[in-house]
Each structure stands twice: as structure tokens, then as C-alpha cells.
Design a protein that fits this description.
By secondary structure, the chain is mainly alpha-helical. The protein has one domain (47-258). It contains 13 helices and no strands. Helix 3 packs across helix 13 and helix 5 crosses helix 10.
């Protein structure tokens, strides 16, 4: 049964002011990671469940598209674009742990219902970015991959040895454009929508402001996310089981660190004449 506080979690803040964004230093992302590890340690089963789902999804994509590396490359790299919308359960685990609530897996699976319309809008935006990237990825392959189409193992050899360097540079550059757009609108957007019932547009604008006000910190944070994802893929997806929950939980703590909390309302007092 869904508790009453989850059904009306954002009613009191429906007219809340625009989120106030803090400036934080470049060392904070490592603090977010440490807190994320703490969340995994206190809630191992639900956290690792989500990590296992990410790893399984990667395995399935690899099996289905192992003869079509151009599609696989788009899907694997697109993983970074849509990841924030797939990690909502991890944010909820961190929120419940922060509030000293018992954290079972069940309630985290349906946390998106708390602000369904706005989470849906944001997911559609990420989906459009992903589809545009997938098309751009295929066009880049068609125009700039000059070798005969190889097996995926031969393509990976090209990547590792930097053969066909022009293609790799262009592919990385195009991917960086889409990744930057996705990252800019995702820094704190979903935690804001889940925590305050914030509308999608305001949440995305607040995320962009967080990026603008903290460029160095956000670069460090983005590099950590990319590095963790690469390690996860390089370990045949096994690393994703732990690394994805760590990044997901850390994202919640990034939101708490970057966005000012709402002011507490003073309690009413009885005034007698």
C-alpha cells in the first residue's frame, strides 16, 4: 500500500519558489561518491538489484546487436544519456535512508508515480535526445567509417589502437554534444521532481543553472560518471552492478548539496487575547 506521505509528497510545495542553487567546490563530487557508497552499505539488496538490472540490460543489448556494432555503439553510448531517468529507484533509496525510513525494494519501483506527469515529460525529452543521438551515430558511421564493415571485435580493436582516427574524433565530438545537453538538464532535475513535486521545466532550468554556476565541479562529476561507466563496460558489465548504484546514490547527494533546502515553515502558536 502506498503511504499517504508519498501520495501527497509535493502538495505543500506545489507553489514553492524557484530552487536556489549553491556554488560548491570541485572536491564535493568525491564526497558525494563516499555518501553513495554508504547508501549501498546500508541498503545493499535494493541498491544492487538496480545495478544488476543495468548489467542485465547491457548484456541483452550486446547479445541482440552483436552483429550490428553500429547500433550497439549507439545504444551503449546512449546509456549515459538516459541513465538519469532509469535511476529513480536509487534516488528514492537515498531519500528514505536520509530520513531513517526502512527501505524495501517495492516502494522504490513505483516512485515515478509521485510526480508522474513531470517525470514523464522529462523522460520524453531524454528519449528524444537519445533518438537524435542514435540517428546521428548511424550517420557518422555511414559518412566517416572508411574501413570495410568488420565484426564487432575488429571494430573494438580499431577503437583501442586508434585506427581510423578521423572517425573516432568525429564520433566522440558528436557524442559529446548530445552528452553535454543531456547532462546539463539532468544534474538535479529528477531528484527535484521527486523530492519537491517540481515541474519538469523548472527542474531542467535549475539543472542548467547548477552547471553554469559550478562548471569545474560539474566537469569533475561528469568525468567520474564517464569513468565509472567505462570501467563497468570494461569489466564485461559486472562492474555496473556496484558502480551504477554508487553513481545513482551520489546523484541524490549532489542534489542535496547543490540545491538549497526549502525554508521550514514556522509552527503556528496559539495566541490568546
Amino acid at each position: 500500500m502506498v503511504q499517504a506521505d508519498e501520495l501527497n509528497s509535493g502538495d505543500a510545495e506545489a507553489l514553492s519558489p524557484f530552487p536556489a542553487v549553491r556554488t560548491v567546490n570541485v572536491g564535493h563530487p568525491f564526497m558525494w561518491l563516499a555518501r553513495g557508497v554508504g547508501d549501498i552499505r546500508h541498503n545493499p539488496l535494493p541498491s544492487l538489484f538496480y545495478g544488476s538490472c543495468f548489467a542485465l540490460m547491457a548484456y541483452v543489448m550486446t547479445i541482440v546487436f552483436h552483429h550490428a556494432y553500429e547500433y550497439l555503439a549507439a545504444l551503449i553510448s546512449g546509456f549515459l544519456l538516459v541513465g538519469p531517468s532509469l535511476a529513480m529507484g536509487l534516488y528514492e533509496i537515498s531519500r528514505r535512508h536520509e530520513q531513517n525510513k526502512i527501505c524495501h525494494l517495492g516502494p522504490t519501483l513505483f516512485v515515478w508515480r509521485r510526480n508522474l506527469s513531470n517525470v514523464g515529460i522529462f523522460s520524453v525529452v531524454l528519449g528524444i535526445i537519445f533518438l537524435l543521438w542514435a540517428r546521428a551515430s548511424l550517420v557518422t558511421f555511414a559518412l566517416f567509417y572508411t574501413h570495410e564493415i568488420p565484426k564487432i571485435t575488429e571494430f573494438l580493436t580499431d577503437v583501442v589502437t586508434f585506427d581510423n582516427i578521423d572517425f573516432l574524433a568525429i564520433y566522440a565530438g558528436v557524442g559529446l554534444i548530445f552528452a553535454t545537453i543531456s547532462f546539463a538538464i539532468s544534474v538535479v532535475s529528477i531528484p527535484l521532481m521527486l523530492d519537491r513535486n517540481q515541474d519538469a521545466i523548472t527542474a531542467m532550468i535549475a539543472s542548467v543553472i547548477a552547471l553554469i554556476r559550478n562548471p569545474g565541479t560539474m566537469v569533475v562529476w561528469a568525468l567520474i560518471i564517464v569513468t565509472a561507466t567505462i570501467i563497468g563496460f570494461a569489466t564485461f558489465y559486472l562492474g555496473l552492478i556496484v558502480l551504477i548504484p554508487m553513481i545513482g546514490h551520489a546523484t541524490w547527494h549532489a542534489y542535496r548539496d547543490i540545491v538549497e533546502p526549502l525554508p521550514t515553515m514556522p509552527q503556528a502558536t496559539n495566541i490568546r487575547p
